[in-house]
Amino acid sequence: MKSFLEHIAKDLLDKYGTDLAHIAVVFPNKRASLFLNQELARLAGKPIWSPAYITISDFFRQHSELTVADPIKSVCDLYKSYIEVTGHVEETLDQFYGWGQLLLADFDDIDKNMADTKMVFANIRDLHELDDVSYLTNEQKTELRRFFANFDDNPEGIREKFITLWARLKDIYDNFKQRLRSQGLAYEGMLYRDVAEQNSIETKYEHYIFIGFNVLQKVEQHLFKHLKKDNKASFYWDYDRYYMNSNNEAGTYIHQWLDKFPNSLPNDNDEIYDNLGNDKQINFISAPTENLQARYITEWLKEDNRYKDGKRTVIVLCDEHLLQTVIHCIPDEVKTLNITTGFPLKQTPIASMVMQLLALQLEGYSQSEQGYRLRYLSRVLRHPYGKYLIPEAEKLIEKIKEEKEFYVNVNEISQLTYHQSDKQHLLELVHWLSDTIRIIGMNGAAVNKDPLFQESVFRMYTLLTRLYDLMSSGDLEADKIIFRRLLNQLITTTSIPFHGEPAQGVQVMGVLETRNLDFDHVLVLSCNEGNMPKGVDDASFIPHLIRKAYGLTTIDNKVSIYSYYFHGLIQRAKDVTFLYNNSTQGSQTGEMSRFMLQLMVEWNHPIHRLALKAGQEPMRIDTEIVYKDDAVMNKLDEIGRFSPTAINTYIRCSLKFYFKYIVGISELEDVEEDDIDGRLFGNIFHCAAQLMYEKLLPRDIITAKNIDDLLKTGKSSQSITSGNSQLTLEDIVDEAFATTLFNKEAGTRTYPKLNGLQLINREVIVKYLRQLLRIDQRSAPLRVLAHEFDVNRSITIKVGDREKELRVGGRVDRLDEVFSDSDKAQLRVVDYKTGGRVAAPLKSIDEVFDPKNVAFKKSDYTMQAMFYSLIEAEHDDKLNPLHHAVSPALLFIQHAGGDDYSPILSMEGKEITDVTEYKEPFFEHLIQQLEDLFNRNIAFSPTDDLNACSYCPYKQMCGR
Predict the structure, then answer these.
(1) Of 50, 67, 350, 804, which sees the most CB atoms within 10 A?
(2) What is the chain's Cα-based Rg?
(3) What kind and span of H or E run contains 281?
(4) What's the half-sphere exposure (Cβ side, CA atoms, 13 Å) at 259?
(5) Can you point out the beta strands (E) in 664-743?
(6) Paired sense of beta strands 802-818 and 826-833, if any
(7) CA–CA distances in Å: residue 492 to residues 233, 291, 319, 321, 340
(8) How far apart are alpha carbons 296 and 304 in whole angstroms?
(9) How far apart are CA 844 and CA 840, in angstroms?
């Protein structure tokens, strides 16, 4: 089937021959000109003088002395006019910018439709006397009455407030246009209107051919009439009788123009204008995801060898965010591909780099510390393009981490000079940002030959330079909030064009690029309501009914335009496939386009309804047990000491033990460089607690009064000769931070400035220490015999027919004696717990070793405390030479506020005063676990308790 452009090419050659140099062909957009030129060359069969190809926008701009202003400058100038007219100086550009863009679009619409602004912005007195206003038609009066009736019943007087401001819009409009005109500038509608209102237009070409227009704004109608009157214009309309002979909105506008601007092609030519009525293969396919739609491309292109038809095959994206996925789904058989939609700049690495650099300057700098906060600097240095800015980025990161610099002095990084972001210095910051991107581009170009890198960096540099020029010229008076918003808006709306031969190969297009083009095979993706038609909201400062009354653009106009595009895709095609997302998850409605529903009702031919299914289940790794071979047994033999943590890991999940202790896979530390996670917080607290008892309280007997004095004064109670008499609770916390967080030498209490979260953690540790003192006060007098020391013992197990000796042990937080020098004196092994989970009371040793109790009853805590206490009771000749009875204690700092709180563990409902009473059953279970561990016939297998897998770092490896 011949295309619309092929019919036009033949008609032009028949009428004007091969010398078309005096003719200008005007299209709504540029894309179709390439295809028409190709048809002209093919049909002529010899060299020809090609016509000029311009868009309607080009025509207006060629005939005006004004220049279309930059959109950002336009809004800034509109803001100046708004302030001058209203005097609302308290309203900032940031507050104005959003609705300023809306107001600018309204002014543009008013001018393109040549509406009388005096009438559009008529004041309330004029509008209340509608019957006496002769210039309004009956339809306009009806629409306006309906609008104001909605306000008459409003008790808040919104109508009056709205009209008061509305009455000033005419003055703002006039002031704004004059401001632009004095600079030789205009917004597009203003320029169009100026040209349309000229008494005579001195045209550049003898004749103009207008092709494929649909909706015509008043300025375009005026131009068409003018050129038609001078016999300088011909018109070619693309339509189909299917929607012209019905109430279908696709033909709304063509109906109006055929009489006013007669068609240069014969309207009775069935080959051109009666194609939608023919039988076609039309498929409606639903899919649950956008990605599944994109994956269907491969099958669709290969089916019937559609890809071999090259430019006669098109993939239309109703949602252009699918572009990346679509590109990856093009099969290898497609050798030539033309993509008319650009690659979004927002999705390139340089966009994220710019945002990280901006965040570094705006939020990442500490004035008090004269340095960058580590987390912000780290994001820049770790960025893929960080090495193009600072070649030694990786080494610098390691140095900073090693030295625990949470604030990095700017003098160490000359490329990242700090710039103030206040309004006075913002221009310098923007210049630095653009220069930094230039450096990244230059350094990266030497090693990165990826065209996307080079194009994206160039586009970004251009955007930043554009903003810098606007600011330096005074057109854009921005603060950092406005600058960031504008930059983000520009990045979001900028795309990087693909290079290629437009008139060759399979076409990938957006909906608007398909205008005036015909294809044999059409695949339309994401044809959902909301995408087709797209953007049919009524966002405007001028209410819908007022817009309708004065002939401005409304939702109805937009729907009609998209209906025309939709039917144009089908018009001359052989087969058309529409895909839509039928998922109703989240904000998605799963609704096909209204035009698809309309086609199902009105079209008299069969439409095939199909559904795509994933065809594959998400890949799941099956959980496999690991058998103990010689390599595994050798690894077990290499373990020098089995800690309670390791044994508890085996009890809870033997496969986790395998990953962690046999294979040696470390758990991922998913924390920021300057964060204090739970493990580090606990280490700092343990260190601070040890220092508190060693340096602030008596070394021998600690009385309730000693503790009370420390709680009240925060000062050490040790003697002057100890060297610690001047220390405070704050000092020992500082020392704990210095030695634990910053790896300083013991006794050091100075360290880099803490950030906000670290300061909060410091205050929490001080609070916990005070809580610990109050708990110990209830058990005074007491002696702290030791802090942070190792305990070990040997255990003999049976491995097959032989015996094997193992070393078991770990690190005790604290050994103390409470109620010293009294009948109630009691030795305790204390394990500090700073987390929120509390170990639940257990009834027996069986429950201690039951893996089901680990997750919710924290039986691993109980097992560890009892394990250390049993070793201390019988195997520590230094600290417990007389082998006094020992009680296991878990001191949960967060939950120890009650007066009756006791950290000593209970078993069978009573406190454990002598842990050796449970020695026999405890070691029976322990030895059994260790023998199972060394038993070749017992493989490493995953736990049956799926709840235990929820936060396991290895769950993805075993399919959980």
Answers:
(1) 350
(2) 40
(3) strand 281-287
(4) 3
(5) none
(6) antiparallel
(7) 39, 22, 15, 12, 18
(8) 14
(9) 12
Measured distance CA(934)–CA(242) in Å, rounded: 82
Residue type, 13: L
CA nearest to 220, candidates 189, 182, 265, 180: 189
Read off the pLDDT of residues 183-241 as tens digits, 9 standing for 90 and up: 999 999 999 999 999 888 889 999 999 999 999 999 999 999 999 999 999 999 999 99
Q: Is 895 exposed, middle or buried (0-12, 13-18, 19+ CB in 10 A)?
A: middle
Distance CA 948, CA 654 (A): 12
299 CB-near residues (< 8 Å, 6+ apart): none
Token digits for 893? 């700092």
> DSSP state, 495?
E
Both tokens of 311, joined, read 């430019």
Omega before 533 within 30 of 0, i.e. cis: yes
Structure tokens at 125: 């007195």
Looking up tokens 């006060």 gives: 777
Q: β-strands 23-27, 52-55: how paired?
A: parallel
Pairing of strands 313-317, 521-525: parallel
Q: CA distances (Å), 164 to each of 109, 125, 141, in order?
A: 22, 11, 20
Amino acid 621: pLDDT: 53
Cβ neighbours of residue 396 closer than 8 Å, sequence gap 6 or more: 381, 390, 412, 413
* Helix 426-445 × helix 349-362 angle, to 10°: 140
What whole-number distance in Å separates Cα of residue 237 and Cα of residue 455? 38
What angle (nearest 5°) sits at the alpha carbon of residue 471, between those of residues 468 and 476? 130
Distance CA 831, CA 812 (A): 7
Asked if 67 and 184 touch (Cβ cutoff 8 Å), the reply is yes
Q: Which of 29, 28, 53 is nearest to 39 (CA)?
A: 53
Spatial separation of the C-alpha atoms in residues 921 and 927, rounded to whole Å = 10
Paired tokens of 957? 């490896």
* Helical packing angle, 756-777 and 704-713, nearest 10°: 150
- Which stretches of the chain score pLDDT less than 70? 123-165, 412, 500, 535-538, 585-589, 615-623, 668-675, 752, 959-960
The DSSP-derived string for 872-915 is HHHH-TTT-TT---EEEEEEEGGG--STT---B-EETTEE-S-G
Residues 66 and 184 sit within 8 Å (Cβ to Cβ): yes
d(CA 207, CA 204): 9
In order of 325, 338, 613, the CA distances from 290 in angstroms are 9, 21, 12
How many angstroms separate the CA atoms of 237 and 262, rounded?
9
Greatest alpha-carbon pair distance for the chain in Å reads: 122
Token reading at 151 = 């306000």
17, two tokens = 């021959």
Reading phi first (left if > 0) and then psi (alpha if -120 to 50, else beta), residue 243 is in alpha
- Lookup: tokens for 915: 């842990």
Q: Which helix (H) or strand (E) holds 953?
A: none
Could you count the other beta carbons within 10 Å of the beta carbon of residue 766? 16
Q: How far apart are CA 871 and CA 878, in angstroms?
A: 12
Residue 783: phi, psi to the nearest 5? -120, 135
d(CA 247, CA 189): 31
Q: Are 281 and 606 in contact (CB under 8 A)?
A: no
Tens digit of pLDDT for each residue in 462-508? 999 999 998 998 888 888 888 888 898 889 888 888 776 777 889 99
Q: Report pLDDT for 132.
A: 46
From the list 419, 433, 427, 420, the residue with the least C-alpha distance to 478 is 427
As given in the structure block, the two tokens for residue 332 are 């290898």
User: Could you give the residue ranges of the DSSP H alpha helices within 182-269?
Assistant: 188-196, 218-229, 241-244, 252-260
Give the strand pairing for 506-510 and 802-818: unpaired
Query: Any idea what DSSP says for residue 661?
Result: I
Q: Which residues contact 948 (CB under 8 A, 6 or more apart)?
A: 652, 653, 851, 854, 855
